Amino acid sequence: MNARTRTVQATQNIRIHKYSAIVASAAAIAKGSQKAVYGDVPAGVNGAGFLGFSLDHFIEPGGLYHVAQGTAPTAVTGTTPTSYSLADKNLTVAYEGECFAIAAGVVAEGDLLAIADVYGRVDSLGNLSLTTPGTIANVVAKALTPSAQANDFIRVRILDAALLQ
Hints:
The protein is mostly beta strands. The chain is built from no helices and eleven strands. It has a five-stranded mixed β-barrel with strand order 1-5-2-6-7. It has a two-stranded antiparallel ribbon with strand order 3-4. It is globular, with a radius of gyration of 15 Å. The mean pLDDT is 89.
């Protein structure tokens, strides 16, 4: 991985699987003369306001929760911690360069990718029906490696561009 990173603050008290797409949240809390940048999981397909891909599991510290190898993102992202609040905690995201993302389906090398679902997975524009003329596709990355199935980790180049089809 060769990416620039930044830290945003989590809006909600929810767990987030590593390599999930994170979008800008409407929440902004004044901190003196500065405003914090808040990130959240996408609201759905083709989510706008892309901030980057999470680099680590965003879960409770100290072994209170464990994500076993091969756990589907749908079993982690969006679940509520029982003994620790993740709201307002720092979340590191990759916003430029190459990193990993989670595929929502079969993706070919070279495909342009958009946010596929509320779990922060990505899929090709064709799979998401975002190639219709007049559609604005919020492209977040280009696939550098293919995926064979949903939940595969793929290497991507972050793009973050809106394309009018």
